[in-house]
Amino acid sequence: MLWSLTSNCIKFTSADIETGKGVGSISTLTFDLDITVEPVGSANPMAPTHRVLGRSPRGKLVECGDIWKKQNNEAGADYYMLTIRDHGFNANLGKAANQDDLPCRTSSPGGPKDAA
To answer: Is the pTM of this model over 0.85?
Structure first.
């Protein structure tokens, strides 16, 4: 079966996520956002790698979240985490099954920050 991701996917301009810009969408049952992702370019290791921008109800581009580079404590591998602040949304960015397009990253939601 051939299908393509239309939501919860960010298409980056480069396979090197840290320097690439991106566009995509994040959808749940409670919100649906078209997003733009821009690198932050900070020398601070505690800063996010990207800021996430969405459109306000009046169409203005506003910062609504961030992408953070994290490291898996067990394997030591780097990964990226997307947050959308107003909705308490967190998701790891990775490749979907059978996905060959390296610059496209899908989000695997982790649920609201305050979920039990």
So the answer is: no
Whether 116 is covered by a domain: the verdict is no
Tens digit of pLDDT for each residue in 33-44?
Answer: 999 999 998 889
Name the percent of the chain lying above pLDDT 70.
Answer: 75
Tokens matching residue 68: 């953070």
User: What is the domain extent for residue 91?
Assistant: 9-109
- Residues 6 or more apart from 54 whose CB is under 8 A from it? 33, 34, 35, 36, 61, 62, 64, 65, 84
Query: Is 1 a domain residue?
Result: no
- Give the dihedral of Cα atoms 96, 97, 102, 105; nearest 10 deg: 0
